[in-house]
Design a protein that fits this description.
The chain has about 475 residues and is of the alpha+beta class. It has helices spanning about 25-30, 50-55, 60-80, 95-110, 125-135, 150-155, 165-170, 185-195, 200-210, 245-250, 320-325, 325-345, 395-410, 460-470; strands spanning about 10-15, 35-40, 80-85, 115-120, 135-140, 155-160, 175-180, 215, 225-230, 235-240, 245, 265, 270, 275-280, 285-290, 290-295, 300-320, 355-360, 385-390, 425, 430-445, 455-460.
Length: about 475
Amino acid sequence: MSTDDRSRVRFVAPAAVMGGGFSTKSFRAALETKPDFIACDAGSTDWGPYYLGTATTWAGYRQTRRDLERMVLGALDVGVPLLIGSAGFTGSDAGLTWFRGIVADILAAHGRTARIATIRTEQPKDWVHGKVRSGQTWGLDGRPDLTGADVDRATRIVAMMGPEPYAEALDAGAQIVLAGRSSDAAIYAAVPLMRGIAPGPAWHMGKTVECGYAIEEPIGAGECIVGEVDDEGFTVRPVGGRSRCTVRSVAAQMLYENATPYLLREPPGTLDTSAARYLQLDEQTVRVVGATFTSEPYSVRLEGVEQLGYRSMCLFGVRDPAVVANVADYTAAITDLVHRTARDRYGLDESAYTFGFRRYGYDAVLGDAEPNAATGYAGCYEIGLVAEAVAADQEIAHEIVSGAMPFFMHGVRVPGVANSANGALAYAPSVVNVGPVFNWSVWHAAALDHPMEPFTLEVADSAAVKELVSS
């Protein structure tokens, strides 16, 4: 690490997410601040369960390599570790292996070598079953207890790691740490905690910079965040440009993916920011002090998905005032026709598929919680409709949606509307086969006997990693 001063730890947060891009000019300036480590989050559940189910990633090879190349070479040039959390996006073994291959490609292309750690977080079902049988799992966000049947139906289950596996990897001499599914805050809290920094400031800093330049203004500048953390608090600022951190932009990050701005549950305990104070030190820099951390019995979140089938969809718009005013009746009539047609013409029972609409401009986002439902939609002049079917195979789903299309265009009579040209199709081909569909079937916590219990650490020289990837 760059300094022997153990009373503070400097860091660089280059990007909001791996593959999202960042300013090269800013990154060069960030490296000049003598950081102790560089870190980045590479995954999320925000994009839904599909990526865990398919073990794929939101960002493609090119954009991932573009960002990762600068981080890897920059970290090696200044001699500090690079920590990547949720490498491969979801924590799947396949995603982590894919990501490790990109690192190996980068090092080989530049004639560089490094010690690479991989931390696997995908869980064998036998381990999860054991936790269920021993009563060491419980539901999160109001979910019922996890059952053996839930585990059996899951396509894939991962555990979200805390900071300890990062520490184990660094203690083993890793220069680049590629972690599977990880707490976002733990990526940044790990090194400060290793260095003995108080957990309150360390965790609050980790939560604040987890999305890199998301805490700067204006949004979209893409300038790297640098800062330092000590036993009293932490400071953050962007470098290399004209963007800035403000009290508002920094404090707002506690609400990101969090129901409260004051409490954040992490594997080893709970961060409490209710007494935190945010201070604007200069035009670009904010200092934060006052957060505390309470240790609790160690637990990790389990994330798992179950495949529901395959989806096909069609996007079209309606703007005839009579259709817009009666859109609930319009979509209900189409749905009824779809079910009758599937039964009478295709020989498909309703149990073989699901069909429905997402009505954008009406209730697609909030559904039954939409506050305008009781008062009407005065002023609404067009509605976007997504018709979708989910079935056991793609062909059935496609058949249901394509068979419904004539009813979008004609065949459903609304008072004052002609019996044709009711819908404007957005694309051709109009039916899109989306592929497999998943839901979050496991969203539970599991108690651990020790922080490394469900995680597997592997450390190897990059030459060995390249040989393994190539074989």
